[in-house]
Amino acid sequence: MLRLKARFDRVADSPPADSRPDLCYWHFPVAGVNFRVNGMRRRGLIQIVRPGAWGYNADMPDFNLTHHFLIAMPAMQEGVFAGTLTYICEHNENGALGIVVNRPISLTLGEMFDQVNIALDQPNLVKLPVYFGGPVQTERGFVLHDTPGNWESTLCINDKLSLTTSRDILEAMGTGQGPRNMIVTLGYAGWDQGQLEHEITENIWLTVPASEHILFDLPPEERLPAAMALLGVDYGSLVEDAGHA
Fold first, then answer.
1. Predicted model pTM
2. CA dist., res. 13 & res. 189, Å (int)
3. Which pLDDT belongs to residue 27?
4. Beta strand residue intervals within the chain, DSSP E
5. Burial code of 165-190, b = ≥16 C-beta within 10 A, e = fewer?
6. Which residues of the chain are under the pLDDT cut of 70?
7. CB 193, CB 185: distance < 8 Å
8. Four-CA torsion 159, 165, 167, 169, nearest 10 degrees
9. What does DSSP assign to residue 135?
10. Residue 28 pLDDT
């Protein structure tokens, strides 16, 4: 798994080495905001400690997990990925980028928009939760969304879904001109070259093609079991089996 080192009450002056250089970001001032992840109060930035291409070899299976779900195996009972469902936005020979989509934090969109000084005039959005998207760059915002738009900095995942990191999408959301469906996160999950492939061979993750219905139509607590159901597996029974292991 990813090795993490926590840094609190400090915001990086520049993007870490593992940031995406082709994306620009809107910055969330987490140094002045407390939020909760899994019932624990966190403050500040969790920084990735890059393991390099450990465990990587050229003979690993060649597969692409873009637009797939990663399901954390129930045996993973500790760490930031325990009990998570992660949507993979990009996977190639250089690594992978994903967003955790089932872990809301104690911060609403209304509160976040106040912090970044953008008016949010859409009552239906004010109380929606912001999500913990992963342990990398938790001071930066990411919007996973449908409805293509001409945003300044967008990674097109496929013809229906995109990941946008620029402030202009928030400004559009504030006036009702944003995407129809979205998940807003702080932070993302990242894997170095060959790291995700290695973790899959170690049975850390289950994978299944992603579903927009699960992403946008279900509440966060139902997304992981629904993704498991796509595999024909009952998540509750797996949890029980893991508890008796």
1. 0.77
2. 20
3. 56
4. 3-8, 34-37, 40-49, 68-72, 85-92, 95-100, 104-108, 129-132, 136-145, 154-156, 162-164, 182-191, 205-209
5. bbbbbbbbbbeeebbeebbbbbbbbb
6. 1-62, 235-245
7. no
8. 20
9. S
10. 56
Q: Is 215 helix (H, G, I), strand (E, B) or coil?
A: helix
Give me the pLDDT at residue 55, please: 39
Characterise 63 by phi-psi region: left (phi > 0), alpha (psi -120 to 50), beta (else): beta
Predicted confidence at residue 135, as pLDDT, reads 95
- Total residue count of the chain as it appears in this document: 245
* Residue labelled with tokens 């796509």: 230
Report the C-alpha gap between 240 and 235 in whole angstroms.
9
CA–CA gap between residue 3 and residue 51 (Å, rounded) = 7
Structure confidence by residue, pLDDT tens digits, 115-166:
999 999 999 999 999 999 999 999 999 999 998 888 999 999 999 999 999 9
- Give me the DSSP letters along 12-77: -SS--TTS-TT----B--GGG-EEEETTEEEEEEEEEE---STT--TTS-----TTEEEEE-TT--
- Domains, in order of start, for the chain: 19-45+62-243 (3.40.1740.10)
Residue 14, burial from CB neighbour count under 10 angstroms (0-12, 13-18, 19+): exposed
For residue 170, report the phi and psi dihedrals to the nearest 5 degrees: -65, -40
